[in-house]
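Tokens as discussed.
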């Protein structure tokens, strides 16, 4: 497990966010992430990482899951910068829209399962495999 330092001033804001999740955040948490329902992985809600708070985070596979509402349409540059910074720290960021979570939770679940399996796979060496 890797510890990613974070700005301690974000702790209170993260706590407030946990108390008032959006409907989509609540749905993905209760239907998929809470209680190790997804591949026996433990997720945290509203987790401070570096200078950001991610919606959901699994430290075991360094995975952040973001649920994007309507406001994210106006902040694409911010989201891209944030994703790049987290990626530089070794964190994979997966995004879903509110609409995907609310209208296709089974599809989100299946997509996450596949992506997590791929995260757990060690990178293949270009020198290995067949010959």
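Sequence:
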């Amino acid at each position: 497990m890797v510890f990613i330092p974070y700005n301690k001033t974000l702790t209170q804001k993260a706590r407030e966010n946990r108390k008032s999740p959006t409907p989509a955040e609540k749905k993905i948490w209760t239907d998929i992430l809470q209680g190790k329902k997804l591949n026996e992985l433990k997720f945290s809600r509203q987790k401070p990482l570096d200078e950001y708070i991610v919606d959901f985070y699994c430290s075991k596979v360094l995975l952040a899951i973001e649920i994007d509402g309507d406001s994210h349409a106006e902040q694409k540059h911010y989201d891209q910068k944030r994703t790049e910074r987290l990626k530089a720290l070794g964190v994979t960021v997966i995004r879903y829209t509110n609409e995907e979570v609310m209208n296709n939770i089974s599809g989100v679940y299946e997509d996450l399962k596949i992506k997590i399996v791929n995260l757990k796979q060690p990178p293949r060496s270009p020198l290995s495999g067949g010959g």
